[in-house]
């Protein structure tokens, strides 16, 4: 019995379900201290105790004993040291393995469409021009015209063979990471915690796509410090991918008669991006003073000062559906979590359940939802 593996799996499962140690202990019928010692690997539990914990968590007993493989080709950078880094990587690994196993079971694997573009970009000098070219070429590959806005970035990424995982992690130090094709990807993992704006989810997904295309040779799990030059390129890419130059200029010019704040917020709604993305683009031609001008104008208009994490006119996540269903009546003036939910894994799970390849319980496990929620989804299928 490897206590470290058991403890790592328990912590991963508990955090994935949003439970505290006390809540896990209550479900298993043991004290919090007893559970804590098991999760920390400082005591050897009876098999019957582990079975009770597994039952309480809604997982199989064997899930507590199976070691998680180590990702190697992953880009997980952060400005601060994260205590939960290893646990996040373990959860991503399990999710990727489940996804790939399901694709293999159903013989339904998407081809990655950006290999040729990545090779082309590797021979170009690094910098803003390369990032803009990458954004233009990526949109061409996806058959997006020069003025078309993106309303479903998760679906768009999945259509070109990139797996998308909206991971709900209570942390504003982590926005996203990505995994290379050689390690079960390509995949983009975005933190969809409710205190992070939906606009940030979307930008983070585009940002990680930029890294996949521009920095494929930097995917090394042991590297955790951010590279300013690479972050700059990925930001330029995301901005131009979400707001192509011609469309941005047209929409900005169309708002010419509006007050400055109203112009920024209207363009932000059209492209479903953060107001910061709009200001970032404006700063390319108008200079960095645009940031201070916006803050002053916004305070005069609203009487409030925008904090670093504030997003004006953002849609609260808890007001909308949790499953893949686009609210057409809200487009393009609003955003909801349904604009950032992966569809492909749900489709694979449905096919596998209907073909009796997996059980409903296994489907819930793959989707990281409760069995009761899985039953509700299955009963709603038409």
From TrEMBL:
It comes from the Bacteria. CDD domains: HTH_XRE (cd00093). One of its GO terms (molecular function) is DNA binding. Residues 10-64 form the HTH cro/C1-type domain. InterPro entries: Cro/C1-type_HTH, IrrE_HExxH, Lambda_DNA-bd_dom_sf, Rad_response_metalloprotease. Belongs to the short-chain fatty acyl-CoA assimilation regulator (ScfR) family. This is HTH cro/C1-type domain-containing protein. It comes from Pelotomaculum propionicicum.
